[in-house]
Specification:
The chain is α+β, with helices and mostly antiparallel strands. Helices cover 32% and strands 22% of the residues. It contains 19 helices and 36 strands. The strands form eleven sheets. The protein has a five-stranded mixed β-sheet, with no helix packed on it. α12 crosses α19, α14 packs antiparallel against α15 and α17 packs across α18.
Amino acid sequence: MLSAMNKKLIPPGPSGDVQEIALREALEERYLAYALSTIMHRALPDARDGLKPVHRRILYGMRLLRLDPGAAFKKSAKIVGDVMGNFHPHGDQAIYDALVRLAQDFSSRYPLVDGQGNFGNVDGDNAAAYRYTEARLTEAARLLLDGIDEDAVDFRPSYDGVSQEPVVLPAAFPNLLANGAQGIAVGMATSIPPHNIAELCDAALHLIEQPKARTRTLLKFVPGPDFPTGGLVVDPPEAIDEAYTTGRGSFRLRGRWKTEDTGRGTYQVVVTEIPWQVQKMRLVEQIAALINEKKLPLVADMHDESAEDVRLVFEPRSRSVDPALMMESLFKLTELESRVPLNMNVLLRGRIPRVVGLAEALTEWLTHRREVLLRRSRWRLSQIEHRLEVLGGYLVAYLNLDKVIKIIRKEDEPKPVLMTSFRLSDVQADAVLNMRLRNLRRLEEIEIRDEDKRLRAEKKSIEDLLRSEAAQWKTIAGQIRQVRDTFGAKTPLGKRRTGFAQAPAHDEAAIEEALVEREPITVVVSEKGWIRALRGQAADLSGLAFKADDALDRAFFAETTSKILVFASNGRFYTIEAAKLPGGRGHGEPVRLFIELEQQAEIVDVFRYRGGRKLIVASKQGRGFIVAEDECLANTRKGKQVLNARPPDAARAIAPVEGELVAAIGENRKMVVFPVEQVPEMARGRGVRLQRHKDGGLSDIKTFEVEKGLTWTDSAGRVFTLSLKELSDWRGNRADAGRLVPKGFPKNNKFDSASGRQTNGKGAAES
């Protein structure tokens, strides 16, 4: 490359071979080449051995260095240098990072590299430099490479053409699913969690017996992933079934915890396992920050007592705190619960990227194992045939020893003479000429005949194997059983670490409340729709500052754990968490920032959700109904449609149902009083006619008890009350027009006209 840069580049003349290529086509061609290179040679694993090229090259390079499981360790720097120089010219750090990951028992379920030295830890600390660490292959890696020298797989030239590298490994170990894989390619990605090898072997054996078995059947043997760091999968079986069938999904993984009695009725919670790929130190820092910010009110303190094993200790705020509820708050806000994605996007036969299910992934591995068995058998058969040919030449020599010696001593070119005299092949003649004198003894003849007999028997068995597909699958099944016995459930490495459980069914409201420290607040709403929360219950709001042309509209008491309901003119209810409201130091923020309110819609009322109550809602045209307050809670920012009011109609009034009678007043200053029982209860709709209007529409609505009578407040804050007897002129039925309001009623036709309305925990809908 340097020599090319130093050359004087002369552009081609008119007679040169110049081709006109469209820029768009040239870019598309090169981008496609780059994408395919990334997909096939970097990011996606091969379904047969579950390895990317860099991992395959590391393992093969270590085999060339004879770093078998029982061999002595060698410096990682030596391994990295050989792999980079011979197979992978992409930087030493990239190779070493891949090597380190293969050696980490908290990252790989079945490590393929046995590391000696500092290879990192679950806290998130990096491994030491490669000059300080040593490595060798594990038994699992040996199984992946088993038979590679017996023509089990194809080889291709390395990047410089000097050496050869395997296209794929023989893979007697189902590495794709056992250790999983992660990678991001151009326009696609792969994410496969690790699984238990014994369960995979059982599923593969069943698949050999029932080749058309579906994924749902195989899940009886493989219930789910098995992570090296343990934890609990809390997804329902239906979700797991769907994920493995389609090859896409995710797993909800939680840390494992237990309670420890500390005496005198107190306890502490100990987390012994954390989710996979979560750095413990980062998790500890995250939890400590949340405790300091008072976002985990149920947790008093947390300390890390981990040594070789994980041990995170949590102290509850008080002995009355439910440990399950406390842990739910931790799972909701921290990485003690994480989502592990499943995207089984792999290379089929090393060429075709595709998302596969569990059954297809195992089938691809079994098909590869059969191909490896056939190739190794044919290779062994050729070796036997060659050896039998040599042994035949030896036997001829022993039977004619004197004559053979005479020919060798007297002839200048004994090889052709031997071939002619005894009808020997070229291979046999070379074998006789290269035979040592020490082998010319009587015992050697007997050994040759015994070896010939054994080899002929082995040849026959191999030929029978090559002719019978059933015998081939029987042999593969035997190999899989050996792998299962090596990594069985009774071994420390093979024992399942990840369990399955159902997430406890806690009330969502209780969980939300547990995430916020309960404190009294005063919610303030301005006329322009700005909202804020003052700490404590502020009785005097006269000193509050507002923006220009803005003033106090309503204020009510609540708590940081409360839910705030907003009723808008479009008939929708919106829900705001009180804990998310801005503080009272500034002017607050517009309500529209917390909800997705239409531009033309206006706010009708804002009040605190209490639950269990009934509300009466009404539109401008005088139609309405009673709705349960619980039905008004919205789960999204878009709100929940309750009152259907099509323009020009709009939601106009809302009031709690607190008595036997309803009072409705129109813009024409006519009022009617009728029984509440005449208003139906609905969850959603237009409702029924509450008051008939000749002109204008409904202005306000209120319910009241018979004994207390109807009350209203004027603009000066004075309270007026009319008894049932005094209301006799306005008594009627639903849909009546009513009569003009009594003397002293506010000019704005509202039952509560006090400026800056403030009640003890009540908004306008609660007054």
